[in-house]
From TrEMBL:
Domain PAC: 332-384
Protein name: Bifunctional diguanylate cyclase/phosphodiesterase
Domain of life where this protein originates: Bacteria
Pfam families given in the database record: EAL, GGDEF, PAS_9
Listed CDD domains: EAL, GGDEF
NCBIfam families associated with the record: GGDEF, sensory_box
Occurrences of domain GGDEF (ranges): 416-549
All residue ranges annotated as the EAL domain in the record: 558-812
Organism: Leptospira levettii
Length: 818
């Protein structure tokens, strides 16, 4: 046999004819033979090219043919039969080629004839496939030529005439195809000036432009290649329209100039450093001296420090953070302190931003510096206020408790005591009311000065606010020694104070609690000394009283208030009053604070200062807080229906409420229940309430902030804050405490504190409101300092809901007529 290389797949059978066929086929040296139980079990991917299938004519013959047609359409097949198959039988199995081998008529010659015929079928099929592929390529090339977005032309290299052109040439050149064909190529390429822009230098050739029928010149990039067309060589010319690229180039140049202008006029310093930490650009804020800025090119911070006579710490710190930015490939932020030869101190917040330069495959660094000197000084001032009393310079409650906790922790002796003294100035309110707050403040400062003189280094004296003071003494030998020190304080504070030309006599009432007998925690000892102080007041003032079990009677009073308060919720004795907030810019009501009031059926109006602490301690504050929120939302909805002007309503929040796991969700549910816009609700909390549970406070207010609910920090600057936590709260409003406002027009320190708080708030993007404004002078000073929202008796005291609504309507209406 003279067969070429083919692969034969034969279906197995127990007929002798199968064995004979297998033997004869195996003798064909150029063939590969594979047998298989059933053709229907062949895996399509396992069959080689140039395959011929031999299978038996049985009941599955039609299924076998269908299988081959679907999976091996390029392979012929031969039907095998132990019996002679007539043309009718072959037709019944739908055999298109009638190739078959029957045992009665079989011979090696027949086998050779059938296999040769099958081989020719394979060759014809392959040629047909190859031809189809060539046709497809031709069609693709024709489509590429016609549909290309580039201008394509075929040019006769001898005559330089255009043989053919694509659709894009017709569209762009504005000529019909028959107008283009036959013209010399140079007809469409008039001379143009060479683009000398460095960015494209070398990419364009002279006269690399095309002229349209209307005379418009189109800048192009071109390429020329020789290739055969219909047996002749032709030039394939490709022109790419680079109008948009040149326009983009011009835009890049304009943008570059624009951004350089912006960078040169920013308030922040900007510089760019290369991978060697050498400067490649710096704006005037980075270095105001133009000559030094020019000198700085390709210099490092080491050179800059030497030039400006800065200490080594300057460049060592910068280098450390640059190396971190390079290694981690992340933005690095740090603060730096720069002190020049004139001792001028500047605080900078600097960022190093790594960027990858795709042109040089090198890393660069953008140095971005913001002057935060004013903010840092404000923070230092606020930090001082966090631990010290601004008026007297004494420790505040936070620092006192911290010292007390440390003393209790370290006190190991069983022979000495820790003494907690808590006192206030008798009739101090009368002094303030009769002599004025200025003299009252002077008195507090003079009291603090006398206390400092009698304290040892290990003692702690603090002002808790108002006229309340606390003293911690360690290692007190006994109760008698504690009493002697108490009497000493009473004596020095009973001496007259010479204030503004007159002598002022004062007395104090003091309570004393001793550890470990009267308590083992600072909270317990402060509470007991506070109870003892009230006992001293009951005994006529101007004396001291040790804590004793008799003071439990005071607790009974507290229990009475607590029980009455529980009934007050059930009996609907609680009422909401509202104090308006006024904008000094629009002279309109811009908000209101909801304030709870209690009208006892027997005692009448109970002061909040008396029942709120009891509610806090007993946990009733949570129920009260829920009621306040629901009542405030209900009234807010009513005001909306009355078309009362829209403004945020402040609701005070207790630290106990913040501690509840689902409190923020309850706030959300209540607002949704009454259909209130979340932006019209403002939650007001004190710094101390945040510090009771800072982590939960942060979590709760992050959730509520996402809903659009505002957060206000009340009594800001009174010394209870931890700035690290306050920053995380992400507050919207800071309320300046009334203690800084009450003598604002007379006290320079108060003005400085208010200014620092306002500046800090503005730098953080926060709104500011001042409470306790009682006269026009305070209002005008606050307005000049940048505080444009005020609250206080200058405009209105807290009002019941009907009176408040009337006030808002009349006030806003009168403001419009002015």
């Amino acid at each position: 046999m003279s067969l070429k290389q083919i692969t034969i797949y034969i279906e197995e059978s127990d007929h002798n004819f199968y064995n004979r066929l297998l033997r004869d086929i195996t003798n064909i040296e150029t063939c590969h033979v594979h047998s298989f139980p059933s053709i229907l079990k062949i895996k399509p991917g396992s069959i080689q090219e140039s395959a011929v299938f031999l299978f038996w004519n049985d009941s599955n013959a039609m299924d076998k043919q269908k299988f081959i047609f679907e999976h091996f359409p390029e392979s012929p097949y031969i039907i095998l039969s132990p019996n002679i198959l007539s043309p009718e039988e072959l037709s019944q199995v739908a055999h298109p080629t009638f190739l078959h081998l029957a045992e009665p008529t079989y011979s090696v010659g027949t086998l050779d004839l059938v296999l040769n015929f099958a081989e020719r079928l394979i060759e014809d099929m392959n040629r047909s496939i190859a031809y189809d592929k060539i046709r497809e390529k031709v069609v693709v090339l024709e489509n590429v030529f016609e549909e290309s977005l580039d201008i394509l032309m075929q040019i006769d290299p001898t005559t330089k005439q255009i043989i053919n052109a694509n659709k894009q040439a017709v569209v762009v050149l504005e000529y019909a195809l028959d107008e283009i064909i036959g013209k010399e190529f140079s007809y469409f390429m008039p001379p143009v000036e060479v683009d000398e822009d460095a960015e494209f230098e070398g990419n364009l050739i002279e006269s690399a432009a095309l002229r349209t029928k209307s005379g418009r010149l189109i800048p192009t990039e071109s390429s020329f290649r020789l290739f055969p067309v219909n047996g002749k060589m032709a030039i394939w010319a490709t022109f790419r329209d680079i109008t948009e690229r040149k326009r983009s180039q011009e835009q890049v140049k304009n943008q570059k100039a624009f951004y350089e202008f912006i960078l040169d006029n920013l308030d922040s310093d900007i510089a760019v450093l290369n991978s060697n930490f050498e400067y490649e650009y710096s704006n005037p804020v980075f270095l105001s001296n133009k000559e030094i800025r020019k000198w700085l090119f390709k210099k490092t911070d080491v050179d800059l420090a030497e030039k400006l006579d800065l200490p080594p710490e300057f460049y060592e710190r910068r280098k450390k953070f640059l190396e971190v930015a390079a290694k981690e490939n992340e933005i690095v932020e740090f603060e730096e302190l720069i002190q020049d030869h004139n001792d001028k101190v500047t605080y900078l917040l600097r960022k190093y931003i790594p960027i990858d330069d795709s042109d040089t495959n090198q890393k660069r660094f953008i140095s971005f510096g913001v002057d935060i000197t004013e903010r840092k000084l404000s923070e230092e001032r606020i930090t001082y206020l966090a631990y010290y009393d601004a008026l007297t310079g004494l420790s505040n409650r936070t620092l006192f408790i911290d010292h007390a906790n440390q003393a209790l922790k370290n006190h190991k002796s069983t022979e000495t005591l820790l003494a907690f003294y808590f006192f206030d100035i008798d009739n101090f309110k009368f002094i303030n009311d009769s002599l004025g707050h200025t003299k009252g403040d002077i008195l507090l400062q003079m009291v603090a000065a006398r206390l400092k003189r009698v304290m040892t280094e290990v003692d702690t004296v603090a002002r808790f606010g108002g006229d309340e003071f606390a003293i911690l003494k360690v290692d007190v030998p006994n109760k008698s020694a504690a009493a002697e020190f108490a009497q000493k304080i009473l004596d020095i504070l009973s001496q007259p104070f010479h204030i503004m030309g007159r002598d002022l006599f004062t007395t104090i009432s003091m309570g004393i609690a001793l550890s470990p007998n009267d308590g083992v925690t600072s909270a317990e000892l402060l509470k007991n000394s506070d109870m003892a102080m009230y006992k001293a007041k009951e005994l006529g003032r101007n004396n001291y009283k040790f804590y004793t079990n008799e003071l439990i009677l005071r607790s009974e009073k507290r229990l009475y208030i607590e029980n009455s308060l529980r009934k007050a919720i059930q009996n609907e004795e609680l009422i909401l009053f509202f104090q308006p907030k006024i904008s000094t810019i629009t002279n309109q009501v811009c908000g209101a604070e909801a304030l709870i009031r209690w009208k006892h059926p027997e005692r009448g109006w109970v002061p909040p200062i008396e029942f709120i602490p009891v509610a806090e301690d007993s946990g009733i504050i949570e129920r009260i807080g829920d009621w306040v929120l629901e009542e405030a939302c209900r009234l807010k909805k009513t005001w909306c229906e009355m078309n009362l002007p829209s403004f945020p309503l402040s609701i005070n929040v207790s630290g106990k409420q913040l501690a509840r796991a689902n409190w923020s969700h309850r706030v959300q549910a209540t607002i949704l229940q009454f259909g209130i816009n979340p932006e019209e609700i403002e939650l007001e909390l004190t710094e101390s309430s945040i510090m009771e549970n800072p982590e939960k406070s942060i979590e709760a207010f992050e959730y509520l902030s996402e809903l659009g609910i505002k957060v206000s920090i009340d009594d800001f600057g009174t010394g209870y804050s931890s700035l690290s936590y306050l920053k995380k709260i992400n507050a919207d409003v800071i309320k300046i405490d009334r203690s800084f406002v009450v003598d604002l027009e007379l006290n320079e320190d108060d003005r400085a504190i208010c200014k620092a708080i306002i500046n800090m708030a503005h730098s953080l993007g926060l709104e500011v409101i001042a409470e306790g404004v009682e006269n026009p002078a305070q209002r005008d000073l606050l307005h000049d300092l940048g505080c444009h929202m005020i609250q206080g008796y200058l405009y209105s005291k807290p009002l019941p809901e009907p009176e408040f609504v009337t006030f808002v309507q009349k006030f806003n209406e009168s403001a419009k007529t002015k």
